[in-house]
Amino acid sequence: MPPTVLTSYAVPPQPPEPAGGSADLPAVRVRSARDLVAAVPHLLGYRPHESLVVVCVTDESVLGLVARVGLDDLAREVVEPPAGRERAVDRLVAAARRVGTTEIVAVVHTARDPRRIRRTVDPALAALELAGDVEPWIVTPEGYRGIDCSDPSCCPPRGRPLAELEHRAVNAALVLAGRAVAPSAEEAYRIVPASEARRSRAARAAARADRARAAVDAAAGALGGRSSGAAGSPPSSPSPMPARTPSSMPSSTRTDAARRASSGYDLWCDLVRHAARELRTAPPGGTDLPPARLGRLAVALAEVPVRDAVLLSTIPGADEVARRTARGAADLPGEAHARTPGDAGPGDAGPGDAGPGDEAFDVEAATARAIARIVDPRVAVRPDPGAVAAARVVLEQVVAHVPRRWHAAPLTLLGLLAWWQGDGGLAAHRLAAARAVDPAYRLAALFGGVLSAAVPPGWVRTREVARGADGGGRGLDAADPSVG
Questions:
Q1: What is the rounded distance in angstroms from the CA atom of residue 34 to the CA atom of residue 483?
Q2: In which region does residue 19 sit, left (phi positive, over 0), alpha (psi from -120 to 50) or beta (all else)?
Q3: Are 479 and 31 in contact (CB under 8 A)?
């Protein structure tokens, strides 16, 4: 397995919203390389262990990228260079170049003998020079120092006290900006299970919804001449109706399946609106959604059309294609789809898309246009913070409430949202958890290839082509990173 390079791209601030809308948090100014060394745990969200962390400052003097790779991965590549595939350090260099890097602060976090670590990190540091000027540091349990500093008054052999890093002003500013530090990545990314009583209610609701789904699938399988699989667990390589096509299904069965998927997507939209209200009014961490509805949503997400519609619903302008995707090819006869603003889903109809009553609406073409807004640098958009925050709350609460066998779909969606936001570390963790639940989950396998190649979301490559059009860098301003 190739080593994982966890890349987190800095999202440029959005322009202030009109009429008193919320603007981005004020930038946190970083005045020295030591400030960036101190900021690393806050930027990652956890304290790294046995890692090389690369912090890239762009030609606009803003933070563009934070990337982490394990020292053991680098060491294996030194001993046995990979044949026929890209090295981890090559992916680091490519990622750094995408954001217009000019300065790199490379920080080695290790509890091992620093003299032995040089054999592992020196080739990586030399390669990073291809992307920008590199200033290397090392942080050990005893202290921190510049790797190449030979002045004992500046960097004693055993390093300067770690307390100097902990008490720098940039740390306080990052804490005020909401960047907490967990003791490990596992702790930072952990989804805390709900209480036993809430989990029990959600599990009972999921079981009821699954029995109803199984009854419909069994009837469709009998009428269509094929088996639709066993009840009681989500499909391992999910397809909402794997053995049936609309033309081979009786019209009543198509209608039942379409209504079920449409109902699942409506449930998602209701819970997202609920979460958005809670995020505006509830204290941090105080968002509680109805357990029974979360249980029903978990079963709905096992249906590919519902899962795909949920992903589409987070993309600006893709609400109509999301709804049609949830219904699948089996349209609900006679059903009106016009919406009022109060009934709208998480997204809005995009320009140039056919309206709800347009029979010529091309679902595949509209889906391609929507996905392009995530992956294609020519048309890519940044995720809407409010919409993604509400979606993440719903998906995380599904994971916190329902039995583990239903986790693959919500965890994969959480990984995709994290990747779109530029957080490769969180994306990789969610994807690994999804594949641990179901190694054959196809969307997770496809997404795994994207992460393994360290491919960034489209808005990162948009900045690569037209750097400077958006300005800024996720609330961290490296005013003078070269100052020691």
A1: 8
A2: left
A3: yes
What are φ and ψ of residue 301, in 5° steps? -65, -15
User: Which residue from 441, 447, 392, 444 is spatially nearest to 421, judged by alpha carbons?
Assistant: 392
Q: How far apart are CA 295 and CA 216, in angstroms?
A: 18
Q: Which two tokens stand for residue 341?
A: 């603003």
Bridge pairing between strands 476-478 and 5-9: unpaired
Residues 6 or more apart whose CB falls under 8 angstroms from that of 76 comprise: 3
* 193/202 Cα distance (integer angstroms): 12
pLDDT for res 474: 40
As a whole number of angstroms, the distance between CA 481 and CA 36 comes to 8
- Which residues does 207 contact at the CB level (< 8 Å), separation at least 6? 295
Amino acid at 472: G
Instruction: Residue 264: name the closest of 316, 312, 307, 203 by CA.
Output: 307
pLDDT of residue 221: 62
Domain boundaries of the chain, sorted by first residue: 5-189+458-478, 196-379
Number of neighbouring beta carbons within 10 Å of residue 202? 28
Q: Which positions ≥6 away from 299 have C-beta within 8 Å? A: 206, 209, 210, 213, 234, 264, 406
d(CA 205, CA 320): 28
In 3-state terms, what secondary structure has residue 374? helix
Pairing of strands 476-478, 28-30: parallel
Rounded CA gap, 224 and 249, in Å?
6
Q: Which of 78, 156, 58, 72 is nearest to 108 (CA)?
A: 72
**CA-only gyration radius of the chain, Å:** 24
pLDDT of residue 377: 87
CB atoms within 10 A of CB 119: 12
Do 136 and 125 meet the contact criterion of CB atoms below 8 Å apart?
A: yes
320 Cβ neighbours under 8 A, 6+ residues apart:
337, 349, 353, 354, 355, 356, 361, 366
pTM listed for this prediction: 0.80
Residue with tokens 């390589």: 237
Low-confidence stretches of the chain (pLDDT beneath 70): 1-7, 10-27, 84-85, 219-255, 329-361, 462-484
Query: Are residues 184 and 47 in contact, defined by beta-carbon separation less than 8 angstroms?
Result: yes
Tens of pLDDT, residue by residue over 176-188, are 777 889 999 899 9
At 81 the three-state DSSP class reads: coil
Q: What is the pLDDT of residue 47?
A: 94
The alpha carbon of residue 316 and the mean position of all alpha carbons in its chain are separated, in whole angstroms, by 17
Rounded distance, CA 21 to CA 76, Å? 50
Helix/strand/coil (H/E/C) assignment for every residue in 141-163: CCEEEECCCCCCCCCCCCCECCH
